[in-house]
Amino acid sequence: MKRGVLALVLFCALAAATYAASATGSIPQLETTLSTNKDIVYPSEIVSVTLLLKANERLDELNFTVDVPNAYISELSSPCVVKENNVFYHGALGEGQTIQCTFGVQPTSTSAVKLTSKAWMTIGPDTGTGTGPSITIDIRSTGSQSIGTFDKIAGENWTVDNHRMSIIKREQNDPDLVYIGFDELTEGIARRECVNLKDYRICLVNSSLKGNFDPYLGFTPYTYKITVSAILPQLELKVKSDKTSIYYGQTVHITIDFKNTGELPIENLSLISDFSSADVKNVQGPCSWKRNGMTFEGSLFMGDSKQCTFDARPLTQQSTSLFTRANFTSTRGITTVTGPSVGISFKTSPFSFALSNTTARLGQWVDGNLTINNAGSRPITFRGTIGNVPVNGTTTFSQLVQNGKSVKLAFKMRAVNIGNNTVILNGKWSDDGEDFDGIASANVIVPSANLVVKNFGQMNVSNGKSTKLDIELENKDVVGLRSVILHVSAPLLDLPKGSEPVDLRPGEMVQVYSASITPANDTEYKINLTVNFQTEFGQRLETTKFITLKSGKATIKALAPVANQSAAKPAAQPATQGTSSTQPATTGQPAPAQQTAPAAALSPEDAASRKAQITKENIFIVLVIFGIIGVAAVFLILNSRKGDEFDSP
Fold first, then answer.
1. What is the dihedral of CA 257, 263, 265, 266, to 10 degrees?
2. Which of 210, 237, 305, 442 could form a disulfide linkage to 223, CB 3.0–4.6 angstroms apart?
3. How many CB atoms lie within 10 A of CB 221?
4. With contact defined as beta carbons under 8 Å apart, do 477 and 361 qualify?
């Protein structure tokens, strides 16, 4: 029972603790430790890893694996083995028994190497799995460029990038130490260690026996696996701004830091920070301002750093960014480093303006609300002017707002113009001794005057016969329409050109036009109707409609309501398929709903054609039904015969 409880604990909680250089997991059954001699290395540098397993009670069977991705495993000590790029242990452990394995890890990419572990255990009749500790080996950003990996023996010479290399073996009985000759330089390297010679990093990855004892040499020769990488100069570039969101007219303070974080001097450094359309002042440090850019040219020794600061005031209200980049040369060519960009956006004005209604009838009063928020550290005096349609005149005000406070002001205005109206608030305020301007706006839509052209419903137009054309105008609900005139244009018909001006009160309907039409056979007539009127507030408006008359086989459908719009005359569109009118394009206001046209009567020719089509469709349906019945009958007969065959003796 006790072992079963312990096994259950094992299943649920094989502890893991991770940190840079080592990690230890401990449960009643097993203590596990992963540790490294380094937690950050250069690409291709060797790291020594130690795995320690200790049983706190007898484990009948233990399988423990350490996953090592993106790396080469070397020099693995017993009793662990390598399996599919994993370090693996299998066996039993007595109470208090300790197992230790060491191995080398050489990263094969610039990605960090995370070692994770897992255990499978058997305790008597119970088994369980759990996650063990993990560690992460980070790769230095100040890295190098791999040149190659070489397997060489003592006394052998070769060339790397026109440099002469050789192995000089001095410690014959120590396979973990070798001396490397690099041009005129000589340096000893221990196994799994690296040295820098000139602009190159040289690492001794491994050593292995090559053959047996050589009596001529007096020792057993070894093969040495050596990696060579070119060291690259490294530049750290930082850019920051004291503000990233400002009002137009404010100044930002920019700081640029650059540092040589590599292992080589940086020569011929050229740095530039682009800042479009800015007024720059107070430049500090070794930089200078040239053509919308902060520049630096010079050199940096190892560990050397520079700082440049300046004040910039953007000259446009569009969001902008500061881009910084640097170029420098090395033995591997030209290197470019791009620093972080600093975005500068513009804050909205510290006030907001809204209307109580987004739509209002002509003549209706609309409430306006202005809110001023002072989020600064000082009181501000806010001065503003509210104007533009549909306000009758303008309103100017001045309001003191304490710091950290909010003030709301109310205004009233009357909708006096049909269409989309924008109320504009121009504000001025001071912030930290600087003056700023801002604009806020709100829209209110005043619908059309709802003027309706009537009496165009279902009139038959017969060729050669006189037809009466009567037009009525109705004012649905507008406070008052003045000087309403209907203009008519029909090039193929001899019609009066217009009506007399009338005034229409709300709800009033007046016949404004009457004429006779004598159409010719199969002739199409385009009639252009233009209505001019003005509101009682003096706004003059005009709207245009087209109708189409076809004699002989067409009817005139009902004309849709005439929508009011601005004084600018829109381009009218002719109706199609017998529709007598189209909606005018009115900017900023909703189009009135199209009236549903009554169904048009068919001409005798169309009726005959439709009847013939229906007859053909009916014949086809009858043939399909008879075909289905015939197939079903054949199927039944065949089944009947098959049944007779089975019944016959």
1. -50
2. 210
3. 16
4. yes
Contact 166, 202 (CB under 8 A): no
Instruction: Please choose, from the candidates 112, 115, 123, the residue with its C-alpha nearest in 3D space to the C-alpha of residue 42.
Output: 112
Q: What residue type is 56 in one-letter code?
A: N
Structure tokens at 557: 């459908």
CA 325 – CA 646 distance, rounded (Å) = 94
Q: How far is residue 576's CA from residue 564's CA, in Å, rounded to a whole number? A: 22
Q: For residues 147 and 164, what is the distance between their CA atoms, to the nearest angstrom?
A: 14
**Mean predicted confidence (pLDDT) in 110-139:** 86
Helix (H) or strand (E) holding 383: strand 380-387
CA distances from 468 to 272, 516, 578, 627 (A): 82, 5, 19, 57
Burial class, 289, CB count within 10 angstroms (exposed 0-12 / middle 13-18 / buried 19+):
middle
Tracing tokens 């993990």 back to the chain, one arrives at 134
Per-residue tokens: 117: 């572990």
Instruction: Give the model confidence (pLDDT) of 610-642 as tens digits.
Output: 444 445 555 656 565 666 766 666 566 555 544
Question: How far apart are the two ends of the chain, measured CA to CA in Å?
Answer: 77
Q: In what order do the strands lie in the sheet with 163-168?
A: 157-160, 163-168, 177-182, 185-190
Q: How many residues does the chain have?
A: 649
Q: Give the H or E element holding residue 526.
A: strand 524-535
CA distance 510 to 498: 15
Other C-beta atoms closer than 10 Å to the C-beta of 284 total 11
Looking only at the bridges linking them, the beta strands covering 333-338 and 30-36 are unpaired
Whether the full predicted model's pTM is greater than 0.70, yes or no, is no
Count of CB atoms situated within 10 Å of the CB of 226: 22
CA dist 449 and 30 (Å) reads 88
**Whether the bond into 491 is cis, omega within 30 of 0:** no
608 φ, ψ (degrees, to nearest 5): -65, -40
**For residue range 223-262, what is the model confidence (pLDDT) as tens digits?**
888 989 888 888 889 999 988 888 777 788 999 999 998 8
The tokens for 644 are: 């007779």
| Cβ atoms 508, 416 nearer than 8 A | no
Sheet containing strand 278-284, strands side by side: 235-241, 252-260, 305-314, 278-284
Task: Give the DSSP H/E element, type plus range, for residue 133.
Answer: strand 126-139
3-class DSSP assignment, residue 617: helix
One-letter identity of residue 249: G
Cα 353 from chain centroid (whole Å): 30
Least confident of 115-124, 149-158, 625-634, 639-648: 639-648
